[in-house]
Protein: Exocyst complex component
Organism: Ensete ventricosum
Amino acid sequence: MLHAPSRRRTAVGHADGGVDVVLATSIGNGEDLGPAVRHSFESGKPEALLHQLRNIVRKKEVEIEELCKLHYEDFIVAVDELRGVLVDADELKNMLSSENLRLREVGSELLLRLEELLELYLIKKNVTEALRTLKVCVQVSKLCLTCNMHVSNSRFYPALKTLDMIERNYIHNTPLKPLRKVIEKQIPALKLHIEKKVCSEFNDWLVHIRSAAKEIGQLAIGQASSARQREEEKRARRREAEEQSRTGVGDVACALDIEHVDEDSMLELDLTPVYRAHHIHTCLGVEEKFRDYYYKNRLMQLNLDLQISSAQPFLESHQPFFAQIAGFFIVEDRVRRTAGGLLSDGQVEAIWETAIAKMTSVLEDQFSRTDTASHLLLIKDLVTLLGATLTRHGYRVAPLLEVLDSSRDKYHELLLSECWKQISDILASDSFEQMVIKKEYEYNMNVLAFQLQSSDTMPAFPYIAPFSSSVPDVCRIVRSFIEDSVNYLLYGGHINFYEVVKKYLDKLVIGVLNEALLSMIHTGNLGVSQAMQIAANIAVLQGSCDLFLWQAAQLCSVPLRVVERPRAGLTAKAVLKASQSAAYSALVNVIDSKLDEYLALMNGINWTADEAPENANDYIHEVIVYLDFLISTAQQILPAEALYKIGVGALCHISDSIVAAFLSESLKRFTLNAVVGIGNDLKTLEAFADERFQSTGLSELKKDRSFRDCLVVARQLLNLLVSNQPENFMNPVIREKNYGALDYKKVASICEKFKDAPDRLFGSLSSRNTKQDARKKSMDMLKRRLKDFS
């Protein structure tokens, strides 16, 4: 067998012949033939490679056949031996498997014992560490227990010292991490608990001191009242002595007045909780927090004290209210002087400024709510006592006294407020119809009493006044206001108070009466007759301003020559005149809105009619009926000047509306027939305007503009549209004479819509007379020139 390879190599070497040696060697060594195959195809000679491979295959087949013949018996023996080896391998495998199983059983038991041993070692280590840790933890726990005992006994300062010792010496050396975390967590909680306990005691003190403040304040105000009474008695004795000395009657007795203040009568103020809380917070390092807490809570209490109960009238509650405030600031003065900087002077000043602001606000509000002057004086007296009390404790009360000095303003504000409500109610309930007076006493009460008569003769009854029922009612309110104002100022001891009364009278008429009228004008849904009546009422009230001023001068004992001086009248007179203009403007707006409703009927006009209408359109009759009603009503209520303004405004609005109808975007085209129809409407309207201008007597006013002149824009536009030579509009002379009121742009827009005749089928074939053609050419020329001009 050892010689077989040698023989095979020899046979192969002899059989190669001309076969490629490289290819044969590669195949024999099992190498990849890919490069050789790729090279053959790339060189374009794959047949040679294929031929060589076939030769190699044939030769290898021959070698295999010879080899099989040569070694047949050896091959059979080798197969038998291989079968024996397989049997031995199976036996060895089974033996190894059983040994592995037995080894695993023995190893598992040993591993369990090893794990138990390691666990025992770990327990021993942990117990040793625990014993060492417990020694430290016992010391920390004792300190914690001591601290808790101090806290339970409300010995907060030793408790804080113990906590400080734990934090500095033990907390970082505690080996037990959970205990250290618990202590680290509980120390802030315990400090917070101590802080809360101290704050609780302090809060109890806050409740107690607030309840005691009223009594403290009442006692202090009582002492101030006694001091004031003694001072008044002293001044009375001094005046009596001076009178006796001047007259020489009786003995003059001199006495030394010694003011005695019973200090024992003052309540003892226990400020211990304040001092203790301040000290504990200082130890906790949060002194500023407690100062802020004290400041905010006392400020909160002050704000509560400054609140007024709505369940009780201020006249009944003002004494305890001011007593509470006085007690509060007496306590704060003591704290500021004895609590070691708990409150700074700036904070006390800030609290006082808050109180001053609140009290002034309360006084202003309550003065505005008080319904009588005597109540104001009662409150004022107590407030001055409060000021005297707090001045002794170093508080600046000048702002409070300034509010008291302005109590007359609050008094008049009260009167103005009442007048506002009364006047508003009167105007709201007035129907704004001319007042009908049936009896003489009614005439005296409503007309003569306020000099509203138009003549000195007694009229026949029933008498229809030019004003409504609200005018005499308003005059009564103004007269009552003047009387109340003078009475209050007289009581106040003012010397020259006529100008003050005049100032407030102006304020009443301007700020109350005039504003109420303007509110009615601007916000009320007024009809035409109502708006007219308001304008007439304002004119009457404007004339009554002189009467109001005369009444004030009479009550103030001022000579009438002072009232009659130039520019000595009320400013309100000019303001009412301006309001009358506003009333006329509102009336014009109402009239324009109503006219717009009727003029909207122009939308029903046939703007491309084939034939011209013979009569005016229906809408113009509605407009004339409304204008007739309007002018008739205005003639009864308004003066001639106002009637003229109303008529002019209405007719101008109609003229503008007619022009606007031609300019409307909804109107695309119109014909001459439609223009003729509008012309008929305008003629009817012009005839009405001429008739009413004469019948109402307005022609006697000699105005430059009549009612017909108000329609000139619409008239000139219609004249242009029906003109045979509309292009003359571009002639400056003719335009100035006949079309001066028209606007270029509007004329251009309207002319673009104008068609001389309606379009018809085969319209170009229809006959047209020369006059129509000439007008059309002239209109076309005007359109072109207007377009070029624009």
User: Anything to note?
Assistant: DSSP finds 27 helices and four strands in the chain.
